[in-house]
């Protein structure tokens, strides 16, 4: 039976990765279909919310070139759209000097040690001895997450992409003796694509297992964005206009923050972990009290004069991480009978959003050309992101998230 339509590239999942991939492929002149299981801009996946950090300070040297490529692509998309989604800022890294991954992050992010009390008087209370406080100027920034996803979807449509929401893909079928794949939805619709890009976030393991029988070790976690009330009189000091940075506090608990911006009078300070979850059966309450208590404890120790903890976080938003064992991305061809016809972008392990436009162009070039030329030119090393690294023992566990 003939499928309903044929496209050069079919992208599954309209989070930040799928939306960027659809835009990148359509910008190349490819005919593109972007299929999303839920409503566009829903709150059930990983890309929803008001803000995401962008930062260059990464313990693993493989990421800063991808962040730099992404920054160029964020700027270019903003220019095409005619509005901004990225507010630049400094980035502050805090942690014990004995933490090798912190020192590597500072080095890779071009950070320099500063006296935080001179720079942000009275805000932080960091021990004098054995602690590092390092700033990379313009090495941080805040992305308006939902607006950014909507921007890439709108740009993709402006380049001719077809976007369909409330369309769940249940099968990807290799057509015997033919090039390309057939994508089947839960309503029985069929679409043919020369290539298919799979960016289904926390659902990746389930879909890839049912489609290809491949076990990808990608574990969804139930996560929270927590907004805290700034103490009266200090609201302006913690804003991006006043020069307050995005920051990461390494050690236990690992917390991270964006300056007060999207909700005036509040600051987002998150705990970088959460309980495992099944994306189709979420218990929305699990881990909530634990995350709030850990961040409150951190605030009492490190920012006691500026942020209220007595009533807990005043806004909580749920979201999912998709963790790989080494916290590194999966960007690879599916292989097997699908060869290079299906490309997977997944396992973004709580730190992918900032690199969305770079991942999108990489996935689209892999699909269309069989290789990621733009990434190679930008010095981005993709070798580590291959699926076959899970065949041995996964290694490395540096803090990378957010
Ligand atoms: C609380 C929180 C804070 C974070 N902070 C940061 C940060 O500061 N900086 C940063 O860089 N990153 C951060 N991240 C990580 C970042 O948001 C994610 O890495 C990124 O959003 C992953 O995007 P995605 O497109 O892979 O997944 P998603 O956004 O989940 O998109 C996948 C889409 O696929 C759809 N889908 C699933 N199955 C199907 C199907 N069968 N058919 C069709 N569609 C399907 C889903 O509905 C979903 O819309 C954070 C994440 C969370 C949860």
What is the fold's blueprint, element by element?
Elements: E1 5-12, H1 16-27, E2 32-35, E3 52-53, H2 64-81, E4 86-96, H3 100-108, E5 112-113, H4 116-119, E6 131-143, H5 145-158, E7 162-164, E8 169-174, E9 181-185, E10 190-198, H6 204-212, E11 219-229, E12 246-249, E13 255-258, E14 266-271, H7 288-302, E15 315-323, E16 330-333, E17 342-346, H8 356-369, H9 373-377
Parallel strand pairs: 1-2, 1-10, 2-7, 4-12, 10-17
Antiparallel strand pairs: 3-6, 4-6, 5-6, 8-9, 9-10, 11-14, 11-15, 12-13, 13-14, 16-17
Flavin-adenine dinucleotide binds at residues 12-18, 35-38, 45-47, 52-53, 168-169, 199-203, 207, 223, 225, 319-321, 348, 350-354, 402.
Number of strands: 17
- Structural domain count: 2
What is the CATH architecture assignment of the largest domain? 3-Layer(bba) Sandwich
CATH H-level homologous superfamily name of the largest domain: FAD/NAD(P)-binding domain
Shape: elongated
The largest sheet, given as strand count, sense and whether it forms a barrel, is:
9 strands, mixed
User: Which distinct ligands sit in these coordinates?
Assistant: flavin-adenine dinucleotide
- In round numbers, the mean pLDDT is 95
Give the SSE order as H and E letters.
EHEEHEHEHEHEEEEHEEEEHEEEHH
User: Roughly how much helix do the residues carry, as a percent range?
Assistant: 10-25%
- Radius of gyration based on Cα positions: 21 Å
* CATH C-level class of the largest domain: Alpha Beta
Question: How many DSSP helices?
Answer: 9
Structural class: alpha/beta
Strand coverage percent: 25-35%
Terminal residue distance: 45 Å
Oligomer: single chain
Low-confidence stretches: 394-398
* CATH T-level fold name of the largest domain: FAD/NAD(P)-binding domain
